[in-house]
Amino acid sequence: MTSTNSVHVLGIGGSLREGSQSERALRIALGGAAEAGVTTELISGPELVLPFYDTALDERHERATRLVEAIRRADGIIVVSPGYHGALSGLVKNALDYVEDLRDDARPYLDGRAVGLAAVAYGWQAAVTTLEQLRTITHALRGWATPLGGSINTAETKFDEAGGASDEKSVRTLRLIGSQVAEFALSRAGH
After folding, report:
1. Which of 22, 23, 125, 166 is most buried by a 10 A CB count?
2. What pTM, to 2 d.p., does this model score?
């Protein structure tokens, strides 16, 4: 846990497309965390282009090292993945595989950290199944999935460049996910 003066929430996700709907959703959720009084950091899109995770390799690519160190420092995490063919993207899954590098830490994997989750897909089926997979992965990595998760259907909801969306309920949901992560982290830090 970091000092009580600097509770930090990390956002991971998005896609390779600049300004993707999933990255915009992630930025909204991080905004909710920031409003709750924590510092935030975003690692998305091209920053997540990493070699396939391989436990047999000791050396890590510069971006992989940055990701692992950011996760290690984080008091809470928000993950937003696009839903591709009913599942989370390979980009996000590979990034989460790198959490394995924290296995021998004093705080292994995502232990003791709230993890806010959302899935963004064109259709309800992929949005819901992707969120379920993110929850399963979070539990396997010893993280505390927030009570609220977000399944967002971009056939109905469009995110804009200004940090909003055509559906205000989706914005409220994402901000609440961010604030739940922040509040959990703040309570663990003794605020």
Report:
1. 22
2. 0.95
